[in-house]
Amino acid sequence: MNTIGIVPARMAASRFPGKPLYPISGRPLLEHCFLRAQKYSGWDVLAVATCDEEIRAFCESKDFPVIMTADTHTRALDRVAEAATKCGLDVADDDIVVCVQGDEPLLGADTIDAVMAPFAADPSVEGTVLVVPIRDEATFKNPDIVKIAHDRNGDVLYTSRAPIPHMKSFSPDGGAMRVGGIFGFRWHMLRWFTQTEESPLEIAEACDSNRICDNGRRQRIAPLAFRPYQSVDSPEDVKLVEAALETDPLWGTY
Q1: pLDDT for 14
Q2: What is the mean pLDDT of residues 153-167?
Q3: Most buried of 8, 176, 197, 228 (most Cβ within 10 A)?
Q4: What is the pLDDT of residue 15?
Q5: Is residue 141 part of a domain?
Q6: Of 89, 118, 115, which is closest to residue 101 (Cα–Cα)?
Q7: Is 159 domain-assigned?
């Protein structure tokens, strides 16, 4: 079984244009993500996928493998799927393709381990999503952060930019969780996803995982024990990441 990691990146991010190459603690965001993803030892392939010449030039200057994709993709998973077909491997149905979002500068080998673990524990699992506990009310109410609800088996029920589950008064013990921006798929599942039209709840919430829920398919949560984990969704997030890096155990190792 092959394990293929794809880091999708494009300069035209709607909420933060030019985000992949924006400097954070002296290094472009994309560089943090790729070098930290490299800490996971199980990759057969790890590459950046982009449609932008600026990103290709940067990757080549750093000797990061880079795969050029169409400039018509608006969803990261569509870019990831195209890149998987160009990664140099003959990808089989049960191979695992991991989308490592290029705006997760606090990821590490532990986050990839978490996303991979459900596949090993249950061969019927077709897709996984990293989830991180929410411990503060600002994160819970932030519409840039996708929240998630799951059933007792750990399969995703719904994802939303609204605060879920409902709480009359926020509590860090209320069970709220956020999507962590790393997704694993059996190759046949990712192909199905990209060949299936956008679903009503996916469109309403702007959350890709709802396409899976809407069509009665399953995606297993991959829980990560709470630790500082900050995505970069807007320019305001940069200072939060830089503050978190000051005490991050991987900072200084790449």
Answers
A1: 76
A2: 97
A3: 8
A4: 81
A5: no
A6: 115
A7: no
Please tell me whether residue 237 adopts helix, strand or coil conformation. helix
Is 156 a member of any domain?
Answer: no
Answer for the pair 96, 3: CB distance below 8 angstroms, yes or no. yes
Identity of the residue numbered 228: P
Number of other residues whose CB lies within 10 A of the CB of residue 9: 30
Average pLDDT over all residues of the chain: 96
- What is the Cα–Cα distance from 226 to 133, expressed in whole angstroms? 6
Q: What is the pLDDT of residues 28-40, one digit of tens each?
A: 999 999 999 999 9
Q: pLDDT tens for residues 103-129?
A: 999 999 999 999 999 999 999 999 999
Q: What are phi and psi of 181, to 5 degrees?
A: 80, 15
Under 8 Å between Cβ of 96 and 188? no
- Whether 27 contacts 33, CB under 8 Å: no
Say what the pTM is: 0.95
Cα(143)–Cα(194) distance, integer angstroms: 25
28 located within any domain: yes
Radius of gyration, CA atoms only, the chain: 17
Assign residue 96 the CATH number of its domain.
3.90.550.10
> Which tokens hold the place of 175?
């069970």
Per-residue pLDDT tens over the stretch 43-62? 999 999 999 999 999 999 99
- Are 4 and 91 a contacting pair, CB within 8 Å? yes
Smallest CA-to-CA distance from 98 within 73, 81, 86 is with: 81
**Distances 165 to 38, 66, 138, 178, 237 between C-alpha atoms, Å:** 34, 39, 15, 11, 24
Residue of 180, 155, 175 lying closest to 164 (CA atoms):
175
- The total of structural domains in the chain comes to 1
The domain in which residue 77 lies consists of 3-130+179-245
Residues sharing a CB contact under 8 Å with residue 86, sequence separation 6 or more, in sequence order: 67, 69
